[in-house]
Amino acid sequence: xxxxxxxxxxxxxxxxxxxxxxxxxxxQVTDRLITHPNVLNGAQLYWPLPNAYYVEGYGLDQxxxxxxxxxxxxxxxxxxxxxxxxxxxxxWRHLQAADAARATLGLDIRGYVTTDxxxxxxxxxxxxxxxxxxxxxxxxxxxxxxxxxxxxxxxxVVARFPDDEDSDALTAYRQGEGVDPLAGAEAVISHLVVRxxxxxxxHAPALQPLPLDPTISPRSAAEELGYTFLPCVLAGLSxxxxxxxxxxxxxxxxxxxxxxxxxxxxxxxxxxxxVVPASALGGSAVLSLSGTGTQIIAVQDNRTALxxxxxxxxxxxxxxxxxLEAVGAIAAQRAGIxxxxxxxxxxxxxxxxxxxxxxxx
Length: 361
Hints:
single chain, alpha/beta, 15 strands, 11 helices, four-stranded parallel sheet, three-stranded parallel sheet, Rossmann fold
């Protein structure tokens, strides 16, 4: 599993799909890679990874906690939610992007529903993170329900976000600095849908195109390419695994009252390694997996605006400097090689604490 928390200014993965090269590298040394839209989304850029699973953040937390399993699918039927607040030109741009995904990529997009009220996205930002709120969350849920009733199995949401071309936060973000001003609110939208309906969901913000700036950072440049961020969302959702909530048998007459059903799909017990920034270890998924046999690999180079470290939380982790080193650690684990054996200096084997040696070997 690979996590880069959303909206915390991660040096890698805090911009426009800039963690995707890392995901591609990790996918080459794993049987399966479970990650989330913040890692794989690059606006109009994306990369098909046959062994990668595109899992929304709330679903990822439920999976790591053992509450949900993941069921791989051959293809999802996608439904599209459009915010009533979108201007006609933006609405048409997004519908054309969806039609292009159908005609060029062969995606199964069933149709779209426009919300019965403007969603009213509001952005909030502190020094270390961004978040947001919706004025009309019920309108979003009603639109999603219509799509699910029509047979859709995954949901793409396009909400109209505030344009703020002159904000210092946006200027910094376009230069590859600071915190993504939209990311926190995007997470709120997808979390709401996944929590309510337990189906794959991802979000693309609708914004008017920004003025050309030749000095844009390469890490932010993917969002400068067109009128919509929707293509990567549709591509990711097309094969996103379905969620399988684990239903506990509460029948007091049952011989096995604590048993959990169904015992199929991919579970948290299948996760051998979790790769996460070393300063952002306080997330729900990290804490859930820290109590299992999953090896947590903490990457120092991927700095964030947070300072939640292994030492702060008392977690046992493998500390690595870079994602390149993390890939090596995963390859060693896959080969059954102790990381200590790759060092030029290997200490002599010592007795366990509390034991005594009877004689000399």
